[in-house]
UniProtKB/TrEMBL annotation:
<dbReference type="InterPro" id="IPR051167">
    <property type="entry name" value="Prolyl_oligopep/macrocyclase"/>
</dbReference>
<dbReference type="InterPro" id="IPR001375">
    <property type="entry name" value="Peptidase_S9_cat"/>
</dbReference>
<dbReference type="InterPro" id="IPR023302">
    <property type="entry name" value="Pept_S9A_N"/>
</dbReference>
<dbReference type="InterPro" id="IPR029058">
    <property type="entry name" value="AB_hydrolase_fold"/>
</dbReference>
<dbReference type="Pfam" id="PF00326">
    <property type="entry name" value="Peptidase_S9"/>
</dbReference>
<keyword id="KW-0720">Serine protease</keyword>
<dbReference type="Pfam" id="PF02897">
    <property type="entry name" value="Peptidase_S9_N"/>
</dbReference>
<protein>
    <submittedName>
        <fullName>Prolyl oligopeptidase family serine peptidase</fullName>
    </submittedName>
</protein>
<feature type="domain" description="Peptidase S9 prolyl oligopeptidase catalytic">
    <location>
        <begin position="470"/>
        <end position="672"/>
    </location>
</feature>
<keyword id="KW-0645">Protease</keyword>
<feature type="domain" description="Peptidase S9A N-terminal">
    <location>
        <begin position="5"/>
        <end position="222"/>
    </location>
</feature>
<keyword id="KW-0378">Hydrolase</keyword>
<dbReference type="InterPro" id="IPR002470">
    <property type="entry name" value="Peptidase_S9A"/>
</dbReference>
<feature type="region of interest" description="Disordered">
    <location>
        <begin position="676"/>
        <end position="696"/>
    </location>
</feature>
Length: 696
């Protein structure tokens, strides 16, 4: 691929020529992959899972109520609803519907997709509801009165924002922090807000008071108010890149910098400041390594003291996955070789004590949710595994836990085992991976996935879609915990960014080879799937290691690493990948950029690209251009683009079921003893598609 991009016209997201190409390719793909009784049966079985009444309705606690967002067959756009704990304990709780998104969409004549709501502490009577058209990140914001069950009109002083990728936060009943598109020059190069303002009820947005302005090269600027009684504070955060931010305490006298490392994770709760380091930090006469969690008094820290207590330190096999507060306790989720441990810390009289919390057995995962730090020491705990349906429990720190909900089994796991193994990457690093499959360890068709970026950890979880669409058919599922993620803390991530990004791909390839070496499958039986940054992973596997795989599904992907930083939110990721405008960094990127490493003479496994026209995070042009180039070269390619769905690729359960049925059936049909499609066999079709798809 030369620097003169012959397919740049496909970056015109809604251009008629580009959309004509999209429609033609999508129709070809659905005609080839999404027809017949077998496909229809698979789609319906997946739809049953997504719409099932027996799913756990996960909740958020607010002022005595448990709130839930729910989709099912009767309510494809969803219901925002609430109930009480007493009702929730019942097998069939009585739910009070706050907003019916489908009914609202019909009234407004809009394709609304729910994007969440921010409620006003402490009584949570008012909410800032975010509604997206078609599932994009950009959303409108409307104030909602929970008691009167109505949106507050502008005539009544209601807060409203037009469609934008906004960040809003309550200060009090009459004031908001707003970071949005205020007009020309108010967005960063990444397309996020550069300016944050304080907006007073009853005044026009253009009269809002500017609180802080960042630079156009920043990622974004936001502000928030901590309304904890007795500890009210205001903070401004300026993200200078994806991993670094400046933090300020806002007072009547102005902004005071919180002097912590730019790349650290920082939180304030009541009197406590917590700092989780991402790189070594020398302060107060002590050097702390990356990945530690430190605690100190916030006011003392702002006064210059640097007396920290170390609550967690990694040991090479463990990492801090998450932490969160109840009113009086700090709950830690620790991963040890990607297995979950839970710990409760309690501060008292200047010291911290700890005790274990009940966690998940074996290779399952435990996740703490549902704390209410303003109110009490209650927490909700979700346990789940590859073959273990989720269980939701309620506990109080120091007390007993009770099971509130259990999800049913959506696929037959009899005879399926879960094992953890380690592959050796090119540089000698041990890379963990999970194998879920038949007890005898040999199934043939194997589906492998991974992510490998942005310090995102991938853990065992119950995925009923993959269970029905792959495991129940006799296949094996593999999750690779490759570098770039957070499974072993920040260094597992930082050792594989920018110039060292190649290690992500070497790790994934090492797992693929290990599966073949151990006899789990052959290369032709190995399918792989990934989306977003995982879609980039798929693109690199396709172009760098095509001999290792039988078929590839590449979803909402980054693929053109020469122009990714100029497309939508791409500029925000240069801290992860590098800046292609800098010659040295382009050399790193050029070495693996899938779009620039296509070879017309090389044989590639069949690939399905899937994306969304409404994805305003990762530009659909990545997938469009890659598919067009491969078709021109005669490679086996399928392309599908949903007209809505945003970065998730689907905006409702029907679309989700259709998409996953197509992806899983494609991978199943293209792997195994007879793939049914080869590069040579599909070359004629590819050439014909390229002819109709050229810009002309």
């Amino acid at each position: 691929m030369t620097d003169d991009d012959p397919y740049a016209w496909l970056e015109d997201v809604t251009g008629e020529t580009a959309l004509a190409w999209v429609r033609a390719r999508s129709e070809e793909t659905t005609g080839a992959l999404a027809t017949g009784d077998a496909f229809d049966a698979m789609r319906e079985r997946l739809r049953e899972v997504l719409d099932a009444e027996g799913k756990i309705p996960y909740v958020t606690r607010r002022a005595g109520y448990l709130y839930n967002f729910w989709r099912d067959a009767a309510h494809p756009r969803g219901l925002w609803r609430r109930t009480t704990l007493a009702e929730y304990r019942k097998a069939e709780p009585a739910w009070d519907v706050v907003i019916d998104v489908g009914e609202l969409a019909r009234e407004d004549g809009e394709n609304w997709v729910w994007q969440g709501a921010r409620t006003l502490r402490p009584d949570h009577r008012r909410a800032l509801v975010h509604l997206s058209r078609g599932g994009s990140d950009a959303a409108v914001v409307r104030e909602y009165d929970m008691d009167e069950r109505r949106f507050v009109s502008a005539a009544d002083g209601g807060f409203r924002l037009e469609e934008a990728d906004s960040r809003v936060a309550w200060i009090d009943a009459d004031h908001l922090y707003v970071a949005t598109d205020f007009g020309p020059g108010t967005l960063t190069d990444s397309g996020y807000p550069r300016v944050v303002k304080m907006w007073t009820r009853g005044t026009p947005l253009e009269k809002a008071e500017t609180v802080f302005e960042g630079r156009s090269t920043d990622i974004m600027v936001v502000a928030h108010h901590d309304a904890t009684p007795g500890f009210e504070r205001d903070f401004v955060n300026r993200s200078t890149d994806f991993w670094r931010r400046d933090r300020y305490l806002r007072t009547p006298e102005g902004l005071t910098r919180v002097d912590v490392p730019e790349d650290a994770s920082v939180s304030v709760h009541r009197e406590w400041l917590l700092v989780r380091t991402c790189s070594p930090w020398a302060t107060g006469g002590t050097e702390y390594p990356a990945g530690v969690l430190l605690a100190t008094g916030f006011d003392a820290f702002m006064a210059g003291e640097r007396d920290f207590t170390t609550l967690f330190a990694p040991d090479g096999r463990s990492s801090l996955e998450a932490y969160g507060w109840t009113r009086g306790h700090l709950l830690l989720t620790v991963l040890r070789d990607v297995r979950t441990e839970l710990i409760a810390f309690t501060p008292a009289d200047g010291t911290w004590s700890s005790e274990p919390l009940p966690g998940a057995p074996g290779l399952d995962t435990a996740t703490i949710t549902g704390t209410s730090p303003d109110e009490d020491d209650e927490f909700h705990l979700v346990t789940s595994g590859f073959t273990t349906p989720p269980t939701l429990s309620r506990g109080v720190v120091g007390g007993q836990t009770e099971v509130l909900k259990r999800a049913p089994a959506f696929f037959d796991a009899n005879g399926i085992t879960v094992e953890q193994h380690f592959a050796t990457s090119d540089d000698g690093t041990r890379v963990p991976y999970f194998v879920v499959g038949p007890r005898d360890g040999r199934s043939g068709r194997t589906l492998m996935t991974g992510y490998g970026g942005f310090e995102v950890s991938r853990q065992p979880e119950y995925n009923a879609v993959f269970g029905r669409g792959w495991l129940e058919r006799g296949g094996t599922f593999v999750l690779a915990n490759i570098r770039g993620g957070g499974e072993y803390g920040p260094e597992w991530h930082t050792r594989a960014i920018k110039a060292d990004r190649h290690k992500v791909y070497e790790d994934f390839a090492a797992v693929a080879r290990d599966l073949v070496r151990r006899g789990v499958c052959t290369a032709s039986e190995l399918a792989i799937q990934g989306g977003s940054n995982g879609g980039l992973l798929m693109g690199v596997m396709l172009t760098r290691y095509p001999e290792l795989f039988g078929a590839i599904a590449c979803q909402v992907p980054l693929l053109d690493m020469k122009r990714y930083h100029k497309l939508l939110a791409g500029a925000s990721w240069t801290a992860e990948y590098g800046n292609p405008d800098i010659p040295e960094e382009w050399e790193w990127l050029r070495a693996y950029s899938p779009y620039h490493n296509l070879d017309p003479q090389r044989a590639y496994p069949p690939v399905l690209f899937a994306t969304s026209t409404r994805d305003d995070r990762v530009h659909p042009g990545h997938a469009r251009k890659m598919a067009a180039a491969m078709l021109e070269q005669g490679h086996p390619v399928h392309y599908y683009e949903n007209t809505e769905g945003g970065h998730s690729g689907a905006s409702n359960n029907a679309q989700n079921a259709f998409r996953w049925a197509m992806v899983l059936d494609f991978l199943w049909q293209r792997t195994g003893a007879s793939t049914g499609e080869t590069g040579a066999a599909s070359a004629e079709t590819g050439a014909a598609s390229a002819e109709t798809g050229s810009k002309g």
